[in-house]
Amino acid sequence: MKTKLSLTQKAALLSLLLFGVILLVWQLATLPEAKAVAADVDPEYAALMGGGSAGSASSFPGPLAMAQTLWDKLSDPFYDNGPNDKGIGIQLAYSLARVLAGFLMAAAVAIPLGFAIGNSRVFYQALNPYVQVLKPISPLAWMPLALYTIKDASLSAIFVIFICSLWPMLINTAHGVAGVRRDWLDVSRTLEVNPLRKAFRVILPAAAPTILTGMRISMGIAWLVIVAAEMLVGGTGIGYFVWNEWNNLSITNVLFAIFMIGIVGLALDSIFGVLEKRVAYQE
Amino acid sequence: MSDSKPHPFLAVENLSRDYPSPTGGVDVTVFDHVNFHIDKGEFICITGHSGCGKSTILNILAGLDAASSGNVFMDGREVSGPSLDRGVIFQSHALMPWLTVLENVSFAVKSRWPGWSRQKVRDHAMYYIELVGLKGAEHKKPAQLSGGMKQRVGIARAFSIEPKMLLMDEPFGALDALTRGVIQDELLKICAETQQTVFMITHDVDEAILLSDRIMLMSNGPHARIAEIVGNTLPRPRERSTIHKHPHYYPIRNHMVDFLVSRSKRYGSLREAPDAPSTPSVFEASALQAREQAPATKPCAGKSHIHLVNA
Prior knowledge:
Strand content of chain B: 15-25%
Largest sheet of chain B: 7 strands, mixed
Number of helices of chain B: 9
Structural class of chain A: mainly alpha
Oligomer: heterodimer
Shape of chain A: globular
CATH architecture of the domain at 88-279 in chain A: Orthogonal Bundle
Radius of gyration of chain A: 25 Å
Order of helices and strands of chain A: HHHHHHHHHHH
Order of helices and strands of chain B: EEEHEEEHHHEHEHEEHEHH
Low-confidence stretches of chain B: 293-311
CATH topology of chain B: Rossmann fold
CATH superfamily of chain B: P-loop containing nucleotide triphosphate hydrolases
Shape of chain B: globular
């Protein structure tokens, strides 16, 4: 007992404690309002007895019911029983595919364009006003235009992802490229490095940390926006799932979806965290 | 040193450089009427106060900067841009921090000989890494190296492309005195082996005497000039430990220090007009020695009669 705990151990302990407190408060807050069932009675047992929370369908689920849902849904993530009843894995895969498609298209545009803007003052000044005006527009505001022109709901969602992930990547790439140290460019000039080799072997690695940060921000925004976009376009995806379950008044499933959105968002962010670390360099 | 006059290896003719005035008036001429030549295998040091345009001259020689007027010829051809024929060692070492030592040098080798195999590039790079004493550190990133080691990588990189000429912009300015001494010795050794032609900027009088064949002294700007050229008559090979015992050492050193302390400021005012042409005076310690004759045993007393030579 006398051994000193490391910082991470202390933090982990505190995290666990916090988790326990949240569960307890949650449990207390969702106790069936009436009398009958005590807190330590298994809800399933209570349900069998014909009382407790099972009585009112719309009530907020307690932690145990939630755990049950989590277990059920995650043990069979890929079932498909028609348009309104698909496994969570399938819904997430749809959302991820849209995010990935929009994100990659944005990267394909933003990184070369950012290179051009970062390399040329003229380009920078010419394009800056457009970027400044277009950047603050909520990506969802593009939805009607996209639906009108593309005439396909799923593609419109991808377009919205494209437009929202474009700006952070574009701006960061331009900044990263413009900020490449003069010395490194002078070295490649004295070595008569051709423009393509210079772009890939000098400018790209020099600007990579800044570009990766832009990609990370873009991915974060894309994952935020996809939920809202899918609520609008419907059909498939985690956003549609949330909306559908709200229409079913299944708060348990909504909560479950919220939880999954958070977990996937965290995973996406950590992937970019790892990539960022890989291209980072110390001067 | 130079017996084949008609075709110097490097010729600089009437170089000048104007910069826009910071206050928005007429352009400021940092230096003008700069003329000099360098022979093959010669080691030239240039020194002068900050702002006289030394670095600009070096950048023009490198092709990284353009002159306002005048020309630079190397090997009979005009210098109009950067070239692999002229290696540059930057004061800030300018290593790419995301590459290892070996990759930094290999990048240069690969640029010089794009057709070489991976193995050949590697072997060639390793040869120069060993030459500067960095064997064993080739897989380290620059951030893991000390300042002296980084500059050694810079030297290895510049030598690895086997340029016709080496340009060094105060390469050891950021190093501590001990490290500087060690690297100077190594540079001296490598230059002797490779017969490299070198143009080097330095603020260090002793460094210039140790390394160079001739030392060019620049007056202060604006309208800076190459005011004096000092022939370094100390015999090679030179040793740091014994060089100051040679009778020419202190006359040369005192001459340079006097220039930097007092004559460099006055030089501009000796002309009838700021932009009038001027020719550098030449200082040879041997001539001084001959005139002095008998009391040559006390070299430190050289200070007083240097002025006679330069009057």
